[in-house]
Amino acid sequence: MAEKDKHLSGEAPDIENGAVETEEQAEDTKTEDVVTESAPMAESEEEEDPEALLISRLSELEDAHLRLRAEYDNYRKRTLKEKSDLLKYAAEKVVVDFLEVLDDFDRALESLPSEDEGNAETRRGIELIRDKMIAKLRGQGVKEMSVIGEPFDADAHEAIAMVPAPDPDKKGKVIDCVQKGYTLSDKVIRHPKVVVGQ
Questions:
Q1: How confident is the model at residue 29, as a pLDDT?
Q2: CA-to-CA distance for 39 and 130, rounded, in angstroms?
Q3: Which of 132, 134, 136 is nearest to 180 (CA)?
Q4: DSSP state of 169
Q5: E strand intervals along 34-186
C-alpha cells in the first residue's frame, strides 16, 4: 500500500525493487476491501434467516399435510363408494341372465290360448312360477320399467322402429314395447326395446 500512496502523491514508484503494482493487482485489492466491508452485513442477515427459513418450512409442511389429508379423505370416500356400488350391483350379471327366463315365461303365457279349459291349470301354474320369480327379483332391487306413453329418452330406451304417431300428442313418445326393460337399484341393467312415434 505504501507504493500506492507514493504513486498517488506524485512520487516516482520504486521500479528497482519490483514494487510497482499493476492495474489488475490494484483492482484485486479494492475488491478484497469491498468484500471485507460487506462481510459483517452478510453475517447479520444469516442470523435472521434461520427463523424465516423455519417459518417458511413450517408453512410448507402444514400445506403438504393439509393436501395429503384431503387426498386421503377423498380416497377413503371413493373406496367406500366403490365398495357400496360393488355390493349394490354384484348380482347384476346373474339378474340379467334370469331376465331372459322371465321373458320365456311371458312368451309361454302369450302362446297359451286362454279359452281352452285344459290350459287353465297350465296357465295358472306358469303365472305362479313367474310371479314368484318376479317377487324374488324385486327383493334384489330389480324393477320393470314402464315406458308406454313416456317421452323417448335415448339414454334409457333403445328405439328399434319409428312409426307415424296415431295422435299428434304421441309424437316423440313410446308407442309400443317389444322387449321389457329393467333397473337394478336405479341403474338400467337392460334397456327396453321400443317403438317411437314420429
A1: 53
A2: 95
A3: 134
A4: G
A5: 142-144, 158-163, 174-179, 182-184
Q: Kindly report, residue by residue over 53-111, the tens digit of the pLDDT.
A: 999 999 999 999 999 999 999 999 999 999 888 877 777 888 888 999 999 999 988 88
For residues 131 and 126, what is the distance between their CA atoms, to the nearest angstrom? 9
- The confidence band for 144, taking pLDDT boundaries of 50, 70 and 90, is very high
Q: Which of 174, 143, 145 is nearest to 160 (CA)?
A: 174
As given in the structure block, the three cell numbers for residue 82 are 366403490
Distance CA 65, CA 128 (A): 62
Contacts of residue 3, Cβ cutoff 8 Å, sequence gap at least 6: 13, 14, 19, 20, 21
Output the pTM of the full model. 0.56
> What are the angstrom distances between the C-alpha of 16 and each of 4, 7, 19, 155?
15, 15, 8, 104
The secondary structure element, H or E, covering residue 118 is helix 118-139
Ramachandran region, residue 162 (left: φ > 0; alpha: ψ -120 to 50; beta: rest): beta
Looking at residue 73, its amino acid is D
